Amino acid sequence: MKQIITLLIALLFLSACQKEVIEITNNVNDHFYVKNGLNSSMVRVRGNAASKIFLLYIHGGPGGDGLSYRNSYVENNIENNYAAVYYDQRNSGASQGANNLDELNLENMVDDIEKMITVLKHRYGSDIEIYMLAHSFGGLLSSAFMTTNNNQQLLKGWIYVDGAHDYAMNDSLTRSRLLVAGNEQIALGKKVEKWQEIVDYCNAHPNNFSFKESMKYNSMAWKAISYLKEGSSTNENSDDESAIEAIVEDKIPITAYTLNMQANLEFAKELIHASYSDELYKVTLPTLVIYGKNDFVCPLELGEALFSSISSTDKEFVLSDISGHSPMDDDMVNFYNHVIRFIETHTEL
Amino acid sequence: MKKLLLFITVLAFFCTKANAQDLKLSYNSSIIYPGAKIGYEVPIFSKDIEKVKRSGKKKSFTRERLLSVNAAIYHHENYHDNLYVTAGISFRKTKPGGFFCEFSPELGVSRTFINGTTYAFDEKNAMKIEKSNGYFYPLLSVGGGFGYDFSKTKDLPFATFTKLNMIALYPYNSGFYFRPTFELGISYKIK
Question: How far is Cα B49 from Cα B43, in angstroms, rounded to an integer?
Fold first, then answer.
């Protein structure tokens, strides 16, 4: 018995002394967690870490996940050249924790990103360049990040894609776009019944939106995108097989993904008046703003407002004529060409 | 959490003192992720029932209630290992030929061990690697399955069984976390 106990203690001692081995190659496949409070966020790093250029995805939602931006095109065109960082925000994707609803707020999420960047620099070198690619709700979160402390100094560039930096403005713009498009489509005799339902709702709910109304506008915006998409030919990513492969290869905990998304509804209620419009002047970082012309979820006027509010002198606005809310899917090649060009223009490596 | 652990300990103590005991061992996979489960169960109620059908045919079976304590683990690579202990009651119906079906709700405590290096920060914002990072959760498991008891016809002291369970952890992040598990195992009659 004594020998067994001695052996166990020796094994524990040995495992405690193990040094972390981090290999920096042009084909890394790493995952690690960053703990902050009662949350441990999952971070996956894939691709060419030897390039020292990191594209950090800040996903939408709240309650989305980082890996949803990964597909074969990203593997071949982004991961081959740079390292892609698929980060799951707290209470999202594969992030884990216990009883942490009280900690679910933008302030902590900003702190999470700061800590995650510290870890990235610890693992891959303090000289790495990080480009933040924020989408949808990630636009709100990244706006909070950029306007807090000196956080923007941690990054080399900001790629802002169909983001929502001002929720109240977002709802008003969604309503306006729905009304205009709805009336146009009705006049053209296209899906009249469906568009009429949307137009009637917009007329009945003109302002001071409640959470319920905000959610309704969001759901109608998605419907509007799908109505316009039917019959059009966008380059939407139809990588269904790769989605199944990803579940198996990336060991995605499907139930956690789904239930985290659901649990974020409570958090979404608190965001209804979230706005960084008055703070954006603090941003001086090189910025690329990309919007889909047919986005009703976060209309392009929202991007124009952000574009004119930031103080960056090095900024560019790109409009994708064929995209809805996700140009990285709807207009993939064009989208990533702009992303790569932006990185190549600004890298000092 | 402490009350749940006390409840499981008391039941475990009760099981070891019982006259009849079954030791259960099973492969316990969670979707495609492997695991194992070990359990101890004692019958607390048993009744032979005979029913006459409209056709006049007699139908007989045994209804049993069994208390059980269990320890289980599954390994989900890159995500977590989940070690959980439960105590529960099984409602079993066994036919004279040995086939049985059962339903068993269990209550327990889970401790996850996150799979992957975890970086944590202290109050001074200094980074460190945290060993054995994970969380405790209260756990509820509900399962149903069927099996064959060899002791009924062949006087062999074991049974085989298969079972589907749904385990729920709460509060996992800010909500529930459900996970289906599949069990395939044998149960050996110790006494």
Answer: 16
- CATH number, span B2-190: 2.40.160.20
Which residues on chain B are in Cβ contact (under 8 Å) with A32?
A: 116-119
B119, B137, B176: residue with CB nearest A98 = B137
Of A20, A255, A260, the CB nearest to B179: A255
- Closest-CA residue to A139 (of A111, A166, A171, A114): A166
Confidence at residue A99, expressed as pLDDT on a 0 to 100 scale: 87
With CA atoms as reference, report the closest residue to A148 among A43, A280, A34. Answer: A280
Query: Does residue A261 surpass a pLDDT of 70?
Result: yes
Question: Hey, what are A232's tokens?
Answer: 């059009």
Q: Give the A window 87-146 contacts with B, CB below 8 Å.
A: 90-91, 94-101, 104, 115, 118-119, 122
- In the stretch 44-73 of chain B, residues with CB closer than 8 A to chain A read none
ipTM value for the complex: 0.89
A53/A35 Cα distance (integer angstroms) = 24
Which of B155, B163, B153 shows the shortest CA–CA distance to B68?
A: B163
Given B76, B117, B173, which is nearest A100 (Cβ)?
Answer: B173
Q: Does B77 touch chain A (CB under 8 A)?
A: yes
H/E run at residue B47 = strand B35-52
Separation of alpha carbons A330 and B107, rounded Å? 47
Residue A254 CB neighbours (<10 A): 10
Q: Where are the beta strands (DSSP E) in chain A?
A: 28-36, 39-47, 53-58, 83-87, 96-97, 129-135, 157-161, 287-292, 315-320
Q: Which of A16-30, A252-266, A297-311, B43-57 has the highest mean pLDDT?
A: A297-311
Nearest to A28 by CA among A58, A51, A5, A60: A51
Contact A34 B119 (CB under 8 A): yes
Residue B132, phi-psi category: left (phi > 0), alpha (psi -120 to 50), beta (remainder)? left
Residue A231 host element (H or E): none
